[in-house]
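Practice set, problem 2.
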Amino acid sequence: MEEKIIYLDNAATSFPKPEEVYKFMDFFYRNFGVNPGRSGYDLCMEAGKVVEDTRKLLTKFFNGRDPNRLCFSYNSTDALNLIIFGILKEGDHAITTTLEHNSVLRPLYHLYKFNGVEVDYVPFDSKGFVDPDDFKKRFKKNTKLVIVNHASNVLGTIQPIKEIGRYCREKGITFAIDASQTAGKIPIDVEEMNVDIVAFTGHKSLMGPTGIGGLYVREGIEIRHTRAGGTGVRSALRTHLEEYPYRLEYGTINTLGVAGLNAGVKWIEEKGIKNIYEYEMKLTKMLVDGLKEIKGVRLYCQDSLENHISVLSFNVEGIEAMNTGIMLDVDYNIACRTGLHCAPLVHEQLETDKIKGAVRFSVGPFNTEEEIKTAINAVKEIAESRSKK
């Protein structure tokens, strides 16, 4: 019998999913797997109802006001591209951070290189946090967008979104957050946190499948069209529709993904987002405390777990991250992520880019204390094997 894998790569995608997600996706696709919103027959209406119910569910989940401004995309990268290319144009200025994922860094660099958009990058401090005042100091007359990673996918640090958003609101600057790592893990209240746009993906902490994500756009914030296509509504128009959600949705959406996302959010609400977070952080504390005791292991920005999610990165002295990951996989059946984690500026600031990145453990709601103990022991044995050479 094959040994069960210890999955510590939940920051890449949560796995396994709740049983309710698998069951509802199967039920939905077998019974209502048609194109929603295109016709008036019963199956089409039922499929459309699940889509609209999920819009309402997620709008409430983020404490938004208008479900029509909850637009589906393929993932957070897709949503972030819609935001960045739909807001910035030549001569504009944007502010972001060195904590960002390439889903923000690359679109911004493209606009800098080819469209004359100026971009400032706020660095993080020794504990892994950005200072809201650093944004305020960088505001210019042409600053049109501030976009920040809500929680780092490398360090696990939760950024002071509310304070940054307050400064942006005072200046009338659009403030967007990349909630890839936080949506479903910690509460997000767009009103209370002064957020104009939240981009999310379904396949991480929202417990849905891959291929579905989206964005919520606050009233008064407009995003230009960067695409055009079918909506199933007012087909005689030559231009793409202006109203939301059609403004930012193109072609047939991933209805199976929406169904899975629907079930994932309901599972989170049933379990309680606070309960899930506290359980994950209990395991993360075990992991951090255990790794700190191992000679030759270096953790990054883990002095305190306050304002953290269940993500941490480390290295074993004298061993490249990739090789540590291979040993964890082959010898201990532990799945984790190694390298630069699609966040190169984090590693440049930590100087881990010079040693090809770090090892990342990310805890999910289905991990156990026994698995965490096994992971700690595995890293200990790897570190000890190196010291004996």
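Problem 2, part (b): a different protein.
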Amino acid sequence: MPYSADLPANPAIRRILVIKWSAMGDVIIATALFEDIARAFPDREIDLNTLPAWQGLFEQDGRFQRVFAVDLRGSRQGIHGMTEWLRQVRARRYDLAIDLQCNDRSRLLLGLLGLTGHRIPYRLGNRQRFPYNIAPAEPPKPVHTITRSRAALRAGGIPATTPRPVLHISDHNRVRVRALMERHGLQPDRYAVFLPGCNASGHLKRWGAVRYAALANQLHREGLKRIALVGGPDEQDECQRIAAACGPWLVNLCGQTGILDIPPLCEPARFIVANDTGTAHLAAATPAPMLVLCGPTDPRRVKPLGNNVTALQADLPCINCYRKTCSHHSCMAMLTPPLVWRRLRDLEREAG
């Protein structure tokens, strides 16, 4: 079976389905691939299938004629969701499916389409296995999700060159962020953004409030006017602890920003410091320099996309353990605030 084709040159491909469900960071990374796909097929209909949690990210996205979301989580929702997914996809009669999710469920659904007489002629995935008829050779591991996905696009003759995430930010979000910056005295290139949280179940990915506060105070002593904390509901306690250890020059915006407020807030920042968290991928949609602090997760797999992003990780035998509990958390303890501060100075010198 051939696993490569020049799909953009095929005039029979008029309607395209792009599948990307989760998680938030992976969906944001995939927006660079969405850009590649849109450029390769400028005169075709492209639909995006994602999960309900991420549908709002693409409401203003002109790359897609239609964005539809089906809840596929859990057993009860999953069975109903799979039936609904099959119904919606059958109705659209796609010529090409680009599966950027490539898990057991997406493979099952694409396979079921064929078994029920509604086979999509061209099915692109990241592995040479059923149900895909276009896919790359298996790359060496470990491999970042973007490397695997870019290889899949190239197997279909789709150039994969977009260097960082591409999100379509509405005027409403930009106006809202400008007002927020004016209210808190955040002047371009005179403030930094900290993304100090992550979801509660992944607390070992957090560098820690004490270290973030120490770094903030050091940066302020060095002349940085403002530091803004950004996060969601799971991160409010962490941000409050950092704010309590700093002065009024630290701006705690945790819980005050929407998802699509984050890129325009980060774009004018002098730099960004982040944990391995979904919001770091949002921030990577801007050219602002970003330092990502990695501990139990492998930066070769999780680092946000972009040449403006640098990962910092301790040199320990137990790094990349992906554990949920740890008695010592040495991987983060070894990334001391002075070490991170020196790395930020190096990044600024390299960029300047």
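Answer key, part (b): The chain has a mean pLDDT of 94. The first strand starts at residue 15 and ends at 19.
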